[in-house]
Amino acid sequence: MSPAAAALDEQVAIVGIGHTEYGKRGSLAHRGTYALACEAIANACADAGISPTVLDGYSGYANEAVEPTRIAAAFGATRLRYAGMVWGGGGGGVLGALVNASMALLCGYADYVVVYRSLTMNTASGRFGQLEVEKALTGSLSEELTFSGPYGLLTPAQVFALNARRHMHRFGTKADHFGAVAVNARAMAANNPDARFREPLTLEEHRASRMISEPMRLLDCCMESDGAAAVVLTRSDRAKDLAHTPVYVRSAAIAADYRQASRLSVSDDDFASAAQSTLAGEVFGRAGIAPADIDVALLYDHFTPMVVMSLEDFGFCGKGEGGPFVEQGEIGPTGSLPVNPHGGHLAEVYLHGMNHILEGTRQLRGTSVNQMGSPELVLVGGAGGVAPTTGCVLGR
Amino acid sequence: MTPTTDLTHVPGLVVPGLVPAARYPLTETYWAEADEGRLVLQRCANCGAYRHPPAPVCFRCQSFEWAWEQISGAGTVFSMTWVHAALTPAFAEAVPYNVCVVELDGTEGVRIAATVTGVESGADLVDLRVQAFFADAGEGHRLLLFSPA
């Protein structure tokens, strides 16, 4: 166990969670990301039983556009002592914001750190699914993407389809396996009043949904959403005096599998993956636990195949066995590893992983509308298929 | 290299603005050579490792010395997708189109993304042997494509 493991284990806690209403892409644009961020943060502080004026640290990822100084100014915060951003990876960085928050708290740079995300995806530049298309048509693609852009390979759905297709080729993974992930998400969300999609889904409906980029159908993709969410963290000594039973950050980690110049030229095993095998070793190793110790997993479901491959990368099943694992109902409420009891990005809301941290916290508090027994350890994973990707283990 | 005539589903040839792409100091040579119909890759002058996309240093031996080397353009499809959803109305004429990841012979595993032309729409192309060629992309530019070998 590395020195960092001992340093993080149960010394930092999530003490408040909050969010705004959730809606379809553009539906909350009239309110703006600034107002949404402040509302989510105010709700998280109210949940913790603290005033937003005592927040003195801000931890973001994915180039969060609402800057800490604006939030501190809006609330009339006493002081701002820490502002950090996870570098790269988009939604893959979400739990890296917990790494940074934890370091700031443990090193004494801040006493109350908020992690937040605020999104209104009404414009092309705000739509993660369309970001590179706009750049391609204006001649401003990044160096690497200039090589794939001319072929119309520009969206996350298309890029991750390549990983999914290789997985199918090597292991016999079927489109229905991906469909089972979508069906599970809807089933989980059925009783979640916050969820955008609560109607049950059948495999037949999945098979009939519009093809986006083979093997990715519409119902394999999460839906771009509007909303904001926030999580307040503090050191454990302070956490014990607050409103809720603390949910401890048992470990958090930032990692990447890509070790060569191109994501296309990685090893076959890394290509047919969610690029989270290195992360799994970091996040479980730092917590001193094994995959079998996890009671509930919140896996980043931007696309259903990435869930299948995340399950393998984190070691919940063997390499190539993710499809059958899902098909057998292991990720359902009565399975060996319930996944995304809130419905995830596919059914609750696509909020770049923030809603997964919120649900993980609720599960450990025992307050979820879809409570999976009395879990003691919860895994939260950031977006797979990108670098860096991040994860954390939460416990009580 | 035998060009095929079926180029109606290549986004870079039917959607204005995709070719030429943005140029950068490390990528200029690739595109200049492509305009002449040559597929070149960076190759480490110290250890001989090929790499793509271009990078300033060798991932294997960390040398900063490299040369551009023309390669055969023969390869095997490693993975692929058929894109059905038009990204914008401009892409409507291109769909459905395929984008393949081609592992290039003699490069120790360098893979490159491109469209394979002259194949049946919707076909499974994984493991297909392919050969590179260049198609006219207008304004003096050419674009790398593959066709079945």
Secondary-structure topology with pairs:
The complex is a heterodimer of chains A (396) and B (149).
Chain A lengths: L2 H6 L3 E8 L3 E2 L8 H16 L8 E4 L7 H8 L6 E4 L10 H11 L5 E8 L11 H7 L18 H16 L3 H15 L13 H6 L2 E3 L2 E2 L7 E11 H4 L7 E9 L12 H4 L5 H11 L8 E3 L5 H10 L8 H6 L16 H4 L6 H12 L11 E5 L7 E7 L1
Helix pairs in contact in A: 7-12
Chain B lengths: L10 H4 L13 H8 L4 E5 L5 E2 L14 E5 L3 E10 L13 E8 L6 E4 L14 E10 L2 E8 L1
Antiparallel strand pairs in B: 1-2, 1-3, 4-5, 4-7, 5-6, 7-8
Task: Explain how this protein is built.
The complex is a heterodimer of chains A (396) and B (149). By secondary structure, chain A is an alpha+beta fold. Chain A is 34% helix and 17% strand. In chain A, the strands form 2 sheets. In chain A, strands 1, 2, 3, 4, 5, 8, 9, 10, 11 and 12 form a 10-stranded mixed sheet that branches. A two-stranded antiparallel sheet of chain A has the order 6-7. In chain A, helix 7 (175-189) crosses helix 12 (304-313). Chain B is mostly beta strands and 149 residues long. Chain B has a single domain, classed as OB fold (Dihydrolipoamide Acetyltransferase, E2P). Chain B contains 2 helices and 8 strands. Chain B has helices at 11-14, 28-35; strands spanning 40-44, 50-51, 66-70, 74-83, 97-104, 111-114, 129-138, 141-148. In chain B, strand 5 (97-104) and strand 6 form a beta hairpin. Classes of the chains: A alpha+beta (396), B mainly beta (149). Chains A and B meet through helix 5, helix 6 and strand 6 of A and strand 4, strand 5 and strand 6 of B.
Provide a quick synopsis of the model.
The complex is a heterodimer of chains A (396) and B (149). Chain A is built from 15 helices and 12 strands.
Salient structural properties:
heterodimer, A: 396 residues, alpha+beta, two-stranded antiparallel sheet, B: 149 residues, OB fold (Dihydrolipoamide Acetyltransferase, E2P), five-stranded antiparallel beta sheet, three-stranded antiparallel beta sheet
